[in-house]
Specification:
Number of strands: 11
Distance between the termini: 40 Å
Largest sheet: 8 strands, mixed
Order of helices and strands: HHEHHEEHHHEHEHEEHEHHEEEH
Structural class: alpha/beta
Number of helices: 13
Radius of gyration: 21 Å
Shape: globular
């Protein structure tokens, strides 16, 4: 009862209801909320603190930035933080009761659209400045639509409740698989990539998807938190691929599936010299050995040929009775 009363007290204020409505539509920083509401930062920060303490908003730190989003029943929870289903239900039901044509809320959402357009502008500038390199790389392998279709097929034989995209980059896998998932989260170390991914999530209106800054060697999630995970064009950057796969296996639930998309062995030296690839493609036997070391059961590889680079899709499953010889604290580097 006290939990619900605290949540209601935290919400029952005009500015906080406006903040709740905004954070139901998009992840926002303090400065973005200040810009939309036209109120002082100390006042907005106080509202946010009370709402986080009451469990109606989630707060995530990303470098010097803090991001806020509505707590929802489908939201994924990191680390030891726990959010009440009752409070999440209360917040979601209240959002549904706020009329879209309310003049104050309508004005806030218009200003939110301005924030989103600025994000789009910054994303467009980034893509324009890197277009030449990306176009050259795409020309080396099969069309991305063919790769996307293969990824969808790899996950298509089972329902996805909780998806993790490791090394999410611009968020393309979240956009591809997010509509078929109960909830999804992408992690990446790069703030710039996370900004691009947020822009894509907003554009596709995938409010049940989110992104977080995290290291693929130290995922901030409890064991068995996800039933599906992906590593899309990520493993060729890893100094220790087995450690990455072990960490992915740790957060997978029993019978959870991992899909790895990467290149077969190649001689395109530009990828190592110009794009910092650590591995010049990955041999199928080597990948199967890595799966075995990580405690995963590998499945036959699928190869997509059509250029100097062959794209491979490897699927692996965490066994039902997998022995966990790698405690979370060790895998996460907290020794």
């Amino acid at each position: 009862m006290e939990e619900l009363l605290q949540a209601m007290r935290a919400i029952a204020e005009p500015t906080r209801i406006r903040i709740l409505a905004l954070c139901a539509h998009s992840e926002l920083t303090v400065s973005e909320i200040v810009q939309i509401l036209g109120q002082s930062q100390p006042r907005v920060s106080r509202h946010l603190r009370l709402m986080v303490e009451a469990g109606v908003l989630q707060r995530y730190q990303e470098g010097t930035w803090a991001w806020y989003r509505l707590v929802s029943r489908s939201a994924l929870v990191t680390g030891k933080a726990r959010y009440s289903d009752r409070v999440a239900s209360l917040a979601e039901e209240l959002i549904d009761l706020i009329p879209d044509d309310d003049p104050v809320v309508s004005r806030d959402l218009e200003r939110l659209d301005n924030v989103r357009r600025e994000r789009e502008r910054q994303a467009a500038e980034f893509f324009a400045s890197n277009a030449e390199d990306w176009d050259r790389l795409r020309a080396l392998h099969v069309d991305e639509a063919e790769v996307d279709a293969a990824v969808l097929k790899a996950f298509g034989d089972r329902a996805i409740n909780r998806l993790l995209d490791i090394g999410t980059g611009t968020g393309t896998v979240l956009a591809l698989l997010g509509r078929n998932a109960g909830s999804a989260i992408g992690v990446d170390l790069s703030p710039q990539m996370l900004s691009l991914a947020r822009t894509l999530i907003d554009r596709e209106k995938l409010t049940h998807c989110q992104v977080r800054q995290a290291d693929m060697y130290q995922l901030p999630f409890d064991a068995a938190s996800f039933d599906a995970a992906s590593l899309h064009m990520v493993l060729h950057y890893a100094e220790d691929p087995v450690a990455v796969l072990r960490e992915a296996a740790r957060v997978l639930a029993p019978n959870g599936r991992l899909v790895v998309v990467d290149f077969a062995p190649h001689n395109v030296e530009e990828l190592r010299a110009r794009h910092a690839h650590r591995w010049p493609g990955i041999d199928d036997k080597l990948m199967q050995d890595w799966f075995l070391e990580a405690g995963l059961e590998g499945e036959p590889v699928e190869k997509l040929e059509g250029g100097a680079l062959t794209v491979c899709l490897w699927k692996a499953v965490r066994p039902e009775q997998a022995e966990n010889n790698h405690p979370a604290s060790v895998i996460a580097g907290n020794t």
